[in-house]
Amino acid sequence: MNSPNEPLPTFDEVLLCTPQTSAEQVGLFLRRCLIPCRGGEKIYTMLFADELSYDVSCRAEELFQHLQRYNNTYRLILLCNCEREHSYIPSAFSQYKVHMIPQRPLPEIQRYLQHHYRVAQPSASAASVFKDNMCVGIVSSKRAGVGK
């Protein structure tokens, strides 16, 4: 948010981890992050890295240790749930741990995201469904099973 005109991360810069995330997926992601190339200075982020299975976590740490020797300018962020700080990945990378608290108020964060997720020119796209021609939206219900 310090650079409001910078684009949001692209699909190759973010890995959303679940217990079903494979070692191959994590390996490809780490290779994109840690093998030097002329792709610019991207910031790679693994979300919910604490949810990776033990096996996948071990292999990810091994690969990270191996690849980081070839690149000391990588930019990698591992976001984990603080309630799972004793799972494998947060423990293995604990020496790099930084506790993060959002530094901006919610309305400012919302304005920033609206700037990036608004469709430039109104058209006959799915964005017309969401408020203010946004290309993303959240549909929720207080009642379960109402088809949303």
From TrEMBL:
<dbReference type="GO" id="GO:0005829">
    <property type="term" value="C:cytosol"/>
</dbReference>
<dbReference type="GO" id="GO:0016887">
    <property type="term" value="F:ATP hydrolysis activity"/>
</dbReference>
<dbReference type="GO" id="GO:0005730">
    <property type="term" value="C:nucleolus"/>
</dbReference>
<dbReference type="GO" id="GO:0016874">
    <property type="term" value="F:ligase activity"/>
</dbReference>
<keyword id="KW-0436">Ligase</keyword>
<dbReference type="GO" id="GO:0004842">
    <property type="term" value="F:ubiquitin-protein transferase activity"/>
</dbReference>
<dbReference type="InterPro" id="IPR031248">
    <property type="entry name" value="RNF213"/>
</dbReference>
<dbReference type="GO" id="GO:0016020">
    <property type="term" value="C:membrane"/>
</dbReference>
<protein>
    <submittedName>
        <fullName>RN213 ligase</fullName>
    </submittedName>
</protein>
<dbReference type="GO" id="GO:2000051">
    <property type="term" value="P:negative regulation of non-canonical Wnt signaling pathway"/>
</dbReference>
<dbReference type="GO" id="GO:0006511">
    <property type="term" value="P:ubiquitin-dependent protein catabolic process"/>
</dbReference>
<dbReference type="GO" id="GO:0002040">
    <property type="term" value="P:sprouting angiogenesis"/>
</dbReference>
